[in-house]
Amino acid sequence: MAEDLSGLELDFTCPICCEVFQDPVALKCSHSFCEECLQQYWSTQKVLLCPVCRKECSRDEPTRSLAFSSLCENFKSRKLAVATDDMCPEHDEKLKLFCFEDKQPICVVCYTSKKHENHKSSPIVEAVQELKENLKVKIENLKVTLDNMSTVQDDYKEQAEQIMTETQSVEEQIKTEFKKLHQFLIEEEDTRIAALRKRESEKKEKIQAKINQLSTNIAILSEAIAYAWQEMEACNIAFLKRYSENIKRLENPPVPNVNLETKQDLKTKKDQTNPIQTLLFTVWTRMQNLISQAPVTLDPNTASNKLMVSEDLSSVSFVEQKLSVADNPERLYVGVLGSQGFSSGLHCWDVEVGNNDHWTIGVVNQSVDRKKLLKMDPSCGMWSIRFFSGKYRVGAKSRKDLNLEECPVVIRVQLDYEKGQIRFYEPFRNITLHTFTNITFTETVFPYFCTGDPDEPLKLYPANKLSW
Hints:
Layout lengths: L1 H8 L14 E3 L5 E3 H9 L19 E2 L1 H20 L11 E3 L4 E3 L1 H5 L8 E3 H109 L3 H6 L1 H9 L10 H11 L3 H15 L16 E3 L5 E4 L17 E2 L8 E7 L5 E8 L16 E7 L2 E4 L5 E3 L7 E7 L4 E6 L4 E6 L8 E7 L6 E5 L6
Antiparallel strand pairs: 1-2, 1-3, 4-5, 4-6, 7-8, 8-19, 9-18, 10-15, 10-19, 11-12, 11-18, 12-13, 13-14, 15-16, 16-17
């Protein structure tokens, strides 16, 4: 501030008194002076000349400038304030030192006083340099914090975008699956209605044929009856002569036999043409066959970044390169969970391990630490079987190797929550691999899956649907 004012001081200085202008006036030659200084100078001169350029002037030439006068007064005030800032308010001495204890500029008298005794002090220039260095360190630290915050913010934005992308993907899958169901129902409706119309047409044709036949029979019988009445009007001898012929005609009319059970048959067939409950059951059964999804599906939001879950959520594969997925709270450090948790009942699901040479399947508590490597031990809330390096292994603390005669292709996991039991067995030969018993479940548990083989995925099947 002081340096800025010193640069401007020459512009506000009267060339005669060398002080800041007091009531400045300007001549036509553009030179300015204090009014009093100019009048005193001219009083000593015979010819009125500009003190600077020596150009001749007239006495009424000096012109006052209120704006310039205001600038001069403002400059004086600022100069006085700067001068006051540089002075010690207590001793009226120039501030030359800085006290680091009290964090304020001091003068030499302050430095020697008891108030600042034993205080660390240094010259103003050195103090400014040191404090600026300290400030730079603070700024750099804040910049690091700012960069970290920006990185975290970018991560959150990326997570938000990934969540949006995943949501859109799931939404599309939902729409696709429901579109299939809608199309299935529309086709079923069209098929059933077409079949109903066909049966209606066939029955109407049969009934119409019977109506036509009955109309013919009615006409024949009516004619026979009318002829009989006519014969009854004949004379006695003629009536008796033709009686045998007439009675035969009435007892054996030339018409086909009429089915007296026709109405009952039609009623039965009518009942059979409206089997709504059977129809609904049939369609529902066919719809279940259409839905090939296993009762236990995978939750992609829990899959670690090296596991890829299939679109139908029924298989998981290991990938060498990490996937770009959001680090949401439910995501595991290693593995993937089933989408449905269990807190009661009996549940089972089949896992096809095939030729996979590195896998883990089992059940885990909902509360396990998902951001750490899970310990394969019941005491840690995990009940599982692992296959690695050609060995089947159960547990971690009390590790147990399983000796199996044949490698199972499919393993069924059976969870009995109330009984506190988890059984792993080969479903086709009903051979038990291992059973965890006497478990006291205290929370919801989830199916757990993990694979480290990039060539062979783990596949899930409904326990009652798998056939070979």
